[in-house]
# Entry
Amino acid sequence: MKAQYFSLAVKNIRKKGVRSWLTMLGIFIGIAAVVSLTSLGQGMEDAIGDEFAKMGSDVIIIMPGTGFESMGSNKLTEHDERIIKNVRGVVNTAPMISKIAKVDHGREAVYTFVSGVPVDDRYKILQDMESFDIEEGRDLQDGDKYRTIAGIRFSEGDVFEGKKLKSGDKLVIDGVDFKLVGILKRIGNDQDDSQLLIPLSAAEEIFSEPDYDTIMVRVKKGFEPSDVADDIKQKMRRDRNQKEGEEDFNVQTSEQLLESVGGVISSVQSVVVGIALISLMVGGIGIMNAMYTSVLERTQEIGVMKALGAKRDDILSMFLIEAGLMGAIGGVVGTIIGLVMSKSVEYYAVSQLNITLLKASTSPAIIFGAISFSFIVGCVSGVFPALQASKLRPVEALRYE
# Structure
Protein backbone atom coordinates (compact mmCIF):
# COMPACT_ATOMS: atom_id res chain seq x y z
CA MET A 1 0.00 0.00 0.00
CA LYS A 2 2.81 2.45 0.88
CA ALA A 3 4.45 1.77 -2.51
CA GLN A 4 1.17 2.74 -4.20
CA TYR A 5 1.09 5.99 -2.23
CA PHE A 6 4.63 6.72 -3.33
CA SER A 7 3.77 6.02 -6.97
CA LEU A 8 0.68 8.23 -6.67
CA ALA A 9 2.76 11.03 -5.13
CA VAL A 10 5.22 10.89 -8.03
CA LYS A 11 2.37 11.08 -10.55
CA ASN A 12 0.79 14.06 -8.78
CA ILE A 13 4.12 15.94 -8.65
CA ARG A 14 4.77 15.28 -12.34
CA LYS A 15 1.21 16.27 -13.21
CA LYS A 16 1.68 19.70 -11.66
CA GLY A 17 4.79 20.27 -13.79
CA VAL A 18 6.24 23.76 -13.48
CA ARG A 19 4.10 24.48 -10.41
CA SER A 20 5.88 21.69 -8.53
CA TRP A 21 9.32 23.09 -9.40
CA LEU A 22 8.28 26.59 -8.35
CA THR A 23 6.97 25.15 -5.08
CA MET A 24 10.34 23.50 -4.42
CA LEU A 25 12.36 26.62 -5.36
CA GLY A 26 12.67 27.74 -1.74
CA ILE A 27 13.99 24.30 -0.80
CA PHE A 28 16.52 24.47 -3.67
CA ILE A 29 17.85 27.82 -2.51
CA GLY A 30 17.89 27.01 1.20
CA ILE A 31 19.56 23.61 0.87
CA ALA A 32 22.05 24.91 -1.72
CA ALA A 33 23.07 27.73 0.65
CA VAL A 34 23.31 25.45 3.68
CA VAL A 35 25.27 22.73 1.84
CA SER A 36 27.72 25.14 0.18
CA LEU A 37 28.43 27.07 3.38
CA THR A 38 28.67 23.95 5.55
CA SER A 39 30.90 22.26 2.97
CA LEU A 40 33.27 25.23 2.77
CA GLY A 41 33.33 25.69 6.55
CA GLN A 42 34.06 22.01 7.19
CA GLY A 43 36.63 21.95 4.40
CA MET A 44 38.41 24.97 5.84
CA GLU A 45 38.45 23.42 9.31
CA ASP A 46 39.91 20.20 7.88
CA ALA A 47 42.57 22.11 5.92
CA ILE A 48 43.57 24.19 8.95
CA GLY A 49 43.66 21.00 11.04
CA ASP A 50 46.03 19.45 8.49
CA GLU A 51 48.31 22.49 8.68
CA PHE A 52 48.42 22.32 12.46
CA ALA A 53 49.11 18.58 12.24
CA LYS A 54 52.18 19.38 10.13
CA MET A 55 53.22 21.89 12.76
CA GLY A 56 53.09 19.21 15.44
CA SER A 57 51.45 19.08 18.83
CA ASP A 58 54.75 19.77 20.65
CA VAL A 59 54.86 23.47 19.75
CA ILE A 60 54.02 26.48 21.96
CA ILE A 61 53.49 29.98 20.54
CA ILE A 62 54.23 33.04 22.68
CA MET A 63 53.04 36.47 21.53
CA PRO A 64 52.93 39.93 23.10
CA GLY A 65 49.58 41.29 24.23
CA THR A 66 46.56 39.11 24.90
CA GLY A 67 46.17 37.68 21.41
CA PHE A 68 46.57 38.36 17.71
CA GLU A 69 44.87 41.74 17.94
CA SER A 70 47.52 42.98 20.43
CA MET A 71 50.66 41.86 18.65
CA GLY A 72 51.83 45.42 18.05
CA SER A 73 51.17 46.72 21.56
CA ASN A 74 54.03 45.04 23.43
CA LYS A 75 57.20 43.15 22.60
CA LEU A 76 59.06 40.07 23.73
CA THR A 77 62.74 40.44 24.55
CA GLU A 78 65.90 38.38 24.52
CA HIS A 79 65.54 38.30 28.30
CA ASP A 80 62.12 36.64 27.90
CA GLU A 81 63.67 34.06 25.57
CA ARG A 82 66.30 33.17 28.20
CA ILE A 83 63.59 32.72 30.84
CA ILE A 84 61.56 30.49 28.50
CA LYS A 85 64.61 28.37 27.64
CA ASN A 86 65.15 27.63 31.33
CA VAL A 87 61.64 26.23 31.78
CA ARG A 88 61.66 22.48 32.35
CA GLY A 89 60.49 20.64 29.24
CA VAL A 90 61.64 23.23 26.68
CA VAL A 91 63.99 21.90 23.98
CA ASN A 92 64.62 25.12 22.09
CA THR A 93 63.12 28.48 21.20
CA ALA A 94 62.89 30.44 17.94
CA PRO A 95 62.17 34.21 18.02
CA MET A 96 60.84 36.12 15.02
CA ILE A 97 60.54 39.78 14.03
CA SER A 98 57.90 40.61 11.40
CA LYS A 99 57.42 44.03 9.77
CA ILE A 100 55.90 45.50 6.65
CA ALA A 101 58.87 46.98 4.80
CA LYS A 102 59.60 48.74 1.53
CA VAL A 103 61.27 46.41 -0.95
CA ASP A 104 62.91 47.77 -4.12
CA HIS A 105 63.95 45.85 -7.23
CA GLY A 106 65.24 47.95 -10.09
CA ARG A 107 62.91 50.91 -10.43
CA GLU A 108 59.94 49.22 -8.78
CA ALA A 109 59.03 49.25 -5.09
CA VAL A 110 56.46 47.28 -3.11
CA TYR A 111 55.52 46.98 0.54
CA THR A 112 55.39 43.45 1.91
CA PHE A 113 56.04 41.43 5.07
CA VAL A 114 59.70 40.90 5.95
CA SER A 115 60.45 38.46 8.78
CA GLY A 116 63.71 38.18 10.67
CA VAL A 117 64.46 34.58 11.64
CA PRO A 118 67.37 32.92 13.46
CA VAL A 119 69.79 31.16 11.11
CA ASP A 120 71.22 28.72 13.66
CA ASP A 121 69.69 25.50 15.02
CA ARG A 122 66.63 27.45 16.21
CA TYR A 123 65.48 27.95 12.61
CA LYS A 124 64.36 24.28 12.43
CA ILE A 125 61.36 25.08 14.63
CA LEU A 126 60.15 27.75 12.21
CA GLN A 127 60.77 25.50 9.22
CA ASP A 128 58.52 22.82 10.72
CA MET A 129 55.86 25.26 11.88
CA GLU A 130 55.61 27.56 8.91
CA SER A 131 56.44 25.05 6.13
CA PHE A 132 59.54 26.98 5.05
CA ASP A 133 60.73 24.56 2.37
CA ILE A 134 63.04 25.60 -0.47
CA GLU A 135 61.81 25.39 -4.06
CA GLU A 136 64.91 26.88 -5.71
CA GLY A 137 68.36 27.93 -4.51
CA ARG A 138 69.34 27.42 -0.88
CA ASP A 139 68.12 28.17 2.60
CA LEU A 140 69.47 30.78 4.99
CA GLN A 141 72.62 29.56 6.71
CA ASP A 142 74.55 30.34 9.86
CA GLY A 143 76.81 33.28 9.06
CA ASP A 144 74.42 34.87 6.54
CA LYS A 145 73.47 38.48 7.18
CA TYR A 146 72.45 40.43 4.08
CA ARG A 147 70.86 37.43 2.43
CA THR A 148 67.16 36.74 1.90
CA ILE A 149 64.79 34.02 0.73
CA ALA A 150 61.47 34.92 -0.88
CA GLY A 151 57.95 33.53 -1.16
CA ILE A 152 57.08 31.82 -4.43
CA ARG A 153 55.06 34.76 -5.76
CA PHE A 154 58.34 36.64 -6.28
CA SER A 155 59.50 33.94 -8.72
CA GLU A 156 56.11 33.81 -10.46
CA GLY A 157 56.15 37.50 -11.36
CA ASP A 158 53.20 38.40 -9.12
CA VAL A 159 55.05 40.93 -6.95
CA PHE A 160 57.08 43.07 -9.36
CA GLU A 161 54.72 43.29 -12.36
CA GLY A 162 55.81 40.30 -14.35
CA LYS A 163 59.45 40.23 -13.23
CA LYS A 164 60.26 36.68 -12.17
CA LEU A 165 62.98 36.78 -9.55
CA LYS A 166 65.54 34.01 -9.12
CA SER A 167 68.51 33.20 -6.92
CA GLY A 168 71.25 35.80 -7.28
CA ASP A 169 68.94 38.77 -7.85
CA LYS A 170 69.34 41.93 -5.78
CA LEU A 171 66.68 43.41 -3.49
CA VAL A 172 66.77 46.55 -1.38
CA ILE A 173 64.90 46.23 1.93
CA ASP A 174 64.35 49.53 3.75
CA GLY A 175 67.40 50.97 2.01
CA VAL A 176 69.74 48.02 2.68
CA ASP A 177 71.03 45.80 -0.16
CA PHE A 178 70.22 42.08 0.07
CA LYS A 179 71.02 39.14 -2.19
CA LEU A 180 68.24 36.65 -2.96
CA VAL A 181 69.59 33.14 -2.30
CA GLY A 182 66.44 31.00 -2.39
CA ILE A 183 62.75 30.73 -3.25
CA LEU A 184 60.28 29.09 -0.87
CA LYS A 185 57.76 26.46 -1.94
CA ARG A 186 54.13 27.53 -2.01
CA ILE A 187 52.67 27.85 1.48
CA GLY A 188 49.08 28.53 0.45
CA ASN A 189 48.15 32.15 1.12
CA ASP A 190 49.18 35.41 -0.53
CA GLN A 191 50.71 36.94 2.59
CA ASP A 192 53.07 34.05 3.29
CA ASP A 193 53.83 33.52 -0.40
CA SER A 194 54.76 37.21 -0.78
CA GLN A 195 57.01 37.49 2.26
CA LEU A 196 60.78 37.75 2.59
CA LEU A 197 62.85 36.01 5.24
CA ILE A 198 66.10 37.60 6.41
CA PRO A 199 68.53 36.75 9.24
CA LEU A 200 67.38 37.94 12.67
CA SER A 201 70.54 40.04 13.12
CA ALA A 202 69.81 41.92 9.86
CA ALA A 203 66.18 42.53 10.91
CA GLU A 204 67.30 43.96 14.27
CA GLU A 205 69.64 46.31 12.39
CA ILE A 206 67.45 47.62 9.56
CA PHE A 207 64.30 47.87 11.68
CA SER A 208 66.17 49.27 14.73
CA GLU A 209 64.13 46.71 16.63
CA PRO A 210 65.89 44.43 19.15
CA ASP A 211 62.63 42.94 20.44
CA TYR A 212 60.57 40.05 19.06
CA ASP A 213 57.02 39.75 17.75
CA THR A 214 56.76 35.99 18.38
CA ILE A 215 58.69 33.24 20.13
CA MET A 216 58.10 29.62 19.11
CA VAL A 217 58.92 26.86 21.58
CA ARG A 218 59.61 23.17 20.98
CA VAL A 219 58.63 20.85 23.86
CA LYS A 220 60.68 17.81 24.85
CA LYS A 221 59.26 14.36 24.27
CA GLY A 222 57.48 13.01 27.32
CA PHE A 223 56.32 16.44 28.47
CA GLU A 224 52.74 17.64 28.12
CA PRO A 225 52.74 20.91 26.07
CA SER A 226 49.87 22.39 28.13
CA ASP A 227 51.83 21.81 31.38
CA VAL A 228 54.96 23.40 29.90
CA ALA A 229 52.85 26.35 28.67
CA ASP A 230 51.50 26.85 32.21
CA ASP A 231 55.06 26.82 33.61
CA ILE A 232 56.14 29.41 31.01
CA LYS A 233 53.22 31.65 32.00
CA GLN A 234 54.06 31.32 35.67
CA LYS A 235 57.75 32.19 35.23
CA MET A 236 57.05 35.11 32.89
CA ARG A 237 54.41 36.49 35.29
CA ARG A 238 56.84 36.23 38.18
CA ASP A 239 59.60 37.95 36.17
CA ARG A 240 57.27 40.77 35.10
CA ASN A 241 55.63 41.01 38.52
CA GLN A 242 52.16 40.44 37.06
CA LYS A 243 49.10 38.75 38.49
CA GLU A 244 47.28 35.90 36.82
CA GLY A 245 44.79 37.27 34.29
CA GLU A 246 46.69 40.57 33.96
CA GLU A 247 49.48 39.29 31.68
CA ASP A 248 50.68 41.42 28.74
CA PHE A 249 51.67 38.30 26.83
CA ASN A 250 49.87 35.28 25.42
CA VAL A 251 51.00 31.64 25.62
CA GLN A 252 49.19 28.97 23.59
CA THR A 253 49.90 25.42 22.51
CA SER A 254 49.28 24.54 18.87
CA GLU A 255 46.22 22.52 19.92
CA GLN A 256 44.77 25.47 21.86
CA LEU A 257 45.39 27.73 18.88
CA LEU A 258 43.61 25.23 16.60
CA GLU A 259 40.62 25.18 18.98
CA SER A 260 40.47 28.98 18.98
CA VAL A 261 40.59 29.21 15.18
CA GLY A 262 38.06 26.37 14.83
CA GLY A 263 35.74 28.08 17.30
CA VAL A 264 35.78 31.33 15.32
CA ILE A 265 35.08 29.49 12.04
CA SER A 266 32.25 27.50 13.61
CA SER A 267 30.65 30.62 15.09
CA VAL A 268 30.70 32.49 11.78
CA GLN A 269 29.46 29.39 9.96
CA SER A 270 26.57 28.94 12.41
CA VAL A 271 25.38 32.53 11.93
CA VAL A 272 25.54 32.34 8.13
CA VAL A 273 23.87 28.90 7.98
CA GLY A 274 21.19 30.20 10.35
CA ILE A 275 20.42 32.99 7.89
CA ALA A 276 20.32 30.45 5.03
CA LEU A 277 17.77 28.37 6.97
CA ILE A 278 15.28 31.21 6.48
CA SER A 279 15.09 30.16 2.82
CA LEU A 280 14.19 26.66 3.97
CA MET A 281 11.36 28.05 6.09
CA VAL A 282 10.09 29.93 3.02
CA GLY A 283 10.36 26.69 1.02
CA GLY A 284 8.42 24.83 3.70
CA ILE A 285 5.65 27.41 3.61
CA GLY A 286 5.56 27.02 -0.18
CA ILE A 287 5.10 23.25 0.16
CA MET A 288 2.37 23.76 2.76
CA ASN A 289 0.54 26.17 0.46
CA ALA A 290 0.85 23.75 -2.47
CA MET A 291 -0.48 20.86 -0.37
CA TYR A 292 -3.50 22.88 0.79
CA THR A 293 -4.21 23.68 -2.87
CA SER A 294 -3.79 20.00 -3.72
CA VAL A 295 -6.32 19.03 -1.04
CA LEU A 296 -8.87 21.42 -2.53
CA GLU A 297 -8.23 20.21 -6.09
CA ARG A 298 -8.53 16.55 -5.08
CA THR A 299 -11.45 16.81 -2.67
CA GLN A 300 -13.72 14.66 -4.84
CA GLU A 301 -10.92 12.13 -5.34
CA ILE A 302 -10.56 11.90 -1.56
CA GLY A 303 -14.32 11.38 -1.27
CA VAL A 304 -14.20 8.49 -3.75
CA MET A 305 -11.28 6.89 -1.94
CA LYS A 306 -13.10 7.12 1.39
CA ALA A 307 -16.30 5.79 -0.12
CA LEU A 308 -14.31 2.76 -1.37
CA GLY A 309 -12.97 2.07 2.12
CA ALA A 310 -9.86 4.25 2.50
CA LYS A 311 -9.20 5.15 6.14
CA ARG A 312 -8.02 8.43 7.65
CA ASP A 313 -4.50 7.02 8.07
CA ASP A 314 -4.40 6.12 4.37
CA ILE A 315 -5.31 9.66 3.28
CA LEU A 316 -2.91 11.14 5.83
CA SER A 317 -0.04 8.91 4.63
CA MET A 318 -0.74 9.71 0.98
CA PHE A 319 -0.42 13.48 1.46
CA LEU A 320 2.51 13.24 3.88
CA ILE A 321 4.45 11.09 1.42
CA GLU A 322 3.79 13.59 -1.36
CA ALA A 323 4.92 16.53 0.80
CA GLY A 324 7.98 14.65 2.02
CA LEU A 325 8.86 13.63 -1.54
CA MET A 326 8.70 17.24 -2.68
CA GLY A 327 11.03 18.19 0.14
CA ALA A 328 13.43 15.32 -0.68
CA ILE A 329 13.53 16.19 -4.40
CA GLY A 330 14.21 19.81 -3.47
CA GLY A 331 16.94 18.58 -1.12
CA VAL A 332 18.63 16.44 -3.80
CA VAL A 333 18.64 19.26 -6.36
CA GLY A 334 19.69 21.81 -3.74
CA THR A 335 22.50 19.54 -2.53
CA ILE A 336 23.85 19.15 -6.06
CA ILE A 337 23.72 22.92 -6.59
CA GLY A 338 25.39 23.52 -3.20
CA LEU A 339 28.23 21.08 -3.89
CA VAL A 340 28.83 22.59 -7.33
CA MET A 341 28.90 26.08 -5.77
CA SER A 342 31.36 25.09 -3.02
CA LYS A 343 33.65 23.27 -5.47
CA SER A 344 33.55 26.31 -7.77
CA VAL A 345 34.60 28.56 -4.87
CA GLU A 346 37.42 26.14 -4.02
CA TYR A 347 38.62 26.06 -7.63
CA TYR A 348 38.56 29.87 -7.88
CA ALA A 349 40.38 30.27 -4.56
CA VAL A 350 43.16 27.88 -5.60
CA SER A 351 43.54 28.85 -9.27
CA GLN A 352 42.98 32.61 -9.05
CA LEU A 353 43.75 33.62 -5.46
CA ASN A 354 46.36 30.96 -4.57
CA ILE A 355 44.48 30.18 -1.35
CA THR A 356 44.82 26.49 -0.54
CA LEU A 357 43.04 26.64 2.83
CA LEU A 358 39.63 27.35 1.26
CA LYS A 359 38.49 23.83 0.43
CA ALA A 360 35.10 22.17 0.08
CA SER A 361 34.21 19.05 2.03
CA THR A 362 31.94 16.55 0.26
CA SER A 363 31.50 14.19 3.17
CA PRO A 364 28.52 11.77 3.08
CA ALA A 365 27.31 13.22 6.37
CA ILE A 366 26.71 16.64 4.76
CA ILE A 367 24.91 15.12 1.74
CA PHE A 368 22.77 12.68 3.74
CA GLY A 369 22.01 15.29 6.39
CA ALA A 370 20.87 17.88 3.83
CA ILE A 371 18.54 15.49 2.00
CA SER A 372 17.14 14.07 5.24
CA PHE A 373 16.53 17.53 6.65
CA SER A 374 14.74 18.68 3.50
CA PHE A 375 12.57 15.54 3.61
CA ILE A 376 11.64 16.33 7.22
CA VAL A 377 10.86 19.96 6.28
CA GLY A 378 8.55 18.66 3.53
CA CYS A 379 6.79 16.24 5.86
CA VAL A 380 6.31 18.83 8.59
CA SER A 381 4.98 21.32 6.02
CA GLY A 382 2.45 18.73 4.83
CA VAL A 383 1.12 17.74 8.25
CA PHE A 384 -1.75 20.27 8.48
CA PRO A 385 -2.93 19.88 4.86
CA ALA A 386 -2.78 16.09 5.28
CA LEU A 387 -4.81 16.27 8.49
CA GLN A 388 -7.40 18.44 6.75
CA ALA A 389 -7.66 15.92 3.90
CA SER A 390 -7.96 12.95 6.25
CA LYS A 391 -10.85 14.60 8.15
CA LEU A 392 -13.02 15.16 5.07
CA ARG A 393 -16.33 13.30 5.16
CA PRO A 394 -17.04 11.19 2.04
CA VAL A 395 -20.49 12.77 1.37
CA GLU A 396 -19.21 16.35 1.70
CA ALA A 397 -16.13 15.54 -0.42
CA LEU A 398 -18.21 14.00 -3.23
CA ARG A 399 -20.50 17.05 -3.31
CA TYR A 400 -17.56 19.49 -3.50
CA GLU A 401 -17.42 21.55 -6.70
Remarks:
- The radius of gyration is 31 Å.
